[in-house]
Specification:
By secondary structure, the chain is α/β, with parallel strands linked by helices. The chain contains ten helices and 13 strands. Strands 5-4-1-8-9-10-11-12-13 form a nine-stranded mixed beta sheet, with helices on both faces. It has a four-stranded mixed beta sheet with strand order 3-2-6-7. A hairpin with a 4-residue loop joins strand 12 and strand 13. Helix 3 runs parallel beside helix 4, helix 8 runs antiparallel to helix 9 and helix 9 packs across helix 10. It is globular, with a radius of gyration of 19 Å.
Length: about 325
């Protein structure tokens, strides 16, 4: 069976805790922290694991926090391949205030990656990837990695006849769209940025999506629209996939869960429409949990049934 690989060049250990109330100038007692491995590609691998699938998480890792990251992945039985760094993997802090039901997220910068280290990542992908495999690049770059790094990765996938899946932003995104893409998952602001806008109206969204597909080598685009669901775009399809109204506890990892759901359906040979329906269900399911627990299979299957019924009624 074709395998799923995820690449995370700037992973993180997420530390989650709870406080009774956020008050300035006062020492606040926190609950025992819960740790999760994180970063775009790793979150996709974790969500795939939650849904009963398998993937290989290729990631950069360094220092004491990097060792902790590897331990977390091993504890979740996620196969992973480490590219060692001299620098130290970053750590984020998420704090839930029980008095207000609000989340506070503090993100630290990632390490600097040298030329030999990021080149080793390319070499690993070149030697590991096979024809028809899926390769996901998700998340932001970190210092030292060139802006066109994901484009280099995409070119390797192209040579290997593998399927390149893209989910990033900023300068990395503007370079990466110049290679062949099997699945592109921008959110509204990311797609808007490619056309020099801060946001897109419905009309502008459809026009921009059609233009992108006409001017780039992309097979499937899934525009994430948050609570509104997603827009599916292919050569001959433009269709909105609604999301159910759920009691959101947080939105951390919703996009990564959405991507994981789509990939599992793609791996099983389903149509783009089924892929994105299941992806929307997985994204909505992720918002039901606090912290970075991501989607859970039981929740996803229930929401997926709703999505399919809602589509068939229209």
């Amino acid at each position: 069976m074709n395998r799923i690989f995820t690449l995370t060049v700037n992973p993180v250990v997420d530390k989650n805790t709870t406080i009774p109330s956020l008050v300035p100038h006062k020492k606040i007692g926190c609950t025992e922290p819960v740790y999760y491995s994180g970063g775009g590609g790793i979150n996709v691998s974790r969500a795939i694991n939650n849904l009963g699938g398998k993937s290989v998480a290729i990631h950069f890792s360094g220092g004491r926090i990097g060792i902790h990251l590897q331990e977390l992945l091993s504890n979740e039985d996620i196969e992973h391949y480490v590219i060692d760094l001299k620098g130290t993997t970053r750590e984020n802090l998420s704090v839930f205030d029980t008095a207000t039901d609000l989340y506070y997220r503090f993100g630290l910068p990632g390490p600097t990656v040298n030329d030999n280290e990021w080149q080793k990542g390319l070499n690993i992908i070149e030697s590991t990837l096979n024809e028809t495999d899926f390769l996901v690049v998700s998340g932001k770059l970190t210092s030292g990695i060139p802006d066109d790094y994901y484009m280099m990765v995409g070119e390797i996938a192209k040579r290997k006849r593998a399927k390149f899946i893209l989910d990033t932003k900023g300068r990395a995104l503007k370079h990466a769209i110049n290679t062949d893409i099997y699945l592109f998952k921008p959110n509204l602001s990311e797609l808007a940025s490619l056309y020099g806008n801060e946001m897109l109206s419905n009309k502008m969204l459809e026009e921009s999506a059609k233009d992108f597909m006409a001017t780039h080598n992309c097979k499937i685009m899934a525009v994430s629209m948050g609570r509104r669901g997603a827009l599916l775009v292919t050569e001959d399809i433009l269709e909105y996939i609604p999301a159910p109204i759920v009691h959101e506890k947080n939105t951390i990892g919703a996009g990564d869960s959405m991507l994981a759901g789509m990939l599992l359906k793609a791996q099983a040979g389903h149509t783009p429409k089924t892929m994105i329906q299941y992806g929307v269900a997985a994204g909505a399911a992720a918002t039901l949990k606090r912290g970075t627990q991501l989607c859970q299979k039981e929740d996803v299957e229930k929401i997926f049934k709703w999505v399919k019924l809602n589509i068939s009624v229209k």
